[in-house]
Write a structure and sequence with these properties.
This is DUF6318 domain-containing protein. This protein is α+β, with helices and mostly antiparallel strands. The chain is built from two helices and seven strands.
Length: 136
């Protein structure tokens, strides 16, 4: 994890959110759910869905070809004391595909813009994703 993402500051929370989405991308591209391990609490249902997708890809010998989500901007939107904050992550999903071990496309994704509200908590000296919601 980058040093900036380990800072107990609003800027640290923003850096953590960028790191979280980089790990999300890598977990789907490499079918490695453990890349998200320790970055989210058990309460984060969306985070668990990301992990479950990476597990499914690994089980089926598949992976995501391309970058699942490109982060454009990250900004703190709400500080709730020193140990909780929410950040808004904006970006795009580019057209991509889930492929099997032979390179055959098993699922395609379309271009779409996206925004996520990410609730972060400072727990045991690190930021952890507590909740992740799509913002419409």
């Amino acid at each position: 994890m980058p040093a900036a993402a380990r800072a107990h500051t609003p800027a640290g929370a923003e850096a953590f959110a960028r790191y979280f989405f980089a790990q999300f991308n890598a977990s789907l591209q490499q079918a490695k759910p453990d890349l998200l391990g320790g970055l989210a609490s058990d309460a984060c249902k969306s985070c668990q869905a990301f992990i479950d997708t990476a597990v499914e890809y690994r089980t089926n010998g598949q992976h995501y070809s391309g970058e699942p989500f490109t982060v454009a901007t990250v900004g703190a939107i709400d500080q709730q004391g020193n140990d909780e904050t929410r950040v808004l992550v904006s970006g795009v999903q580019h057209p991509g595909a889930v492929v099997d071990a032979s390179g055959k496309i098993v699922q395609q994704t379309k271009y779409q813009k996206g925004q996520f509200s990410v609730h972060l908590k400072w727990i045991n000296g690190a930021w952890v994703a507590e909740e992740l919601k799509v913002v419409k």
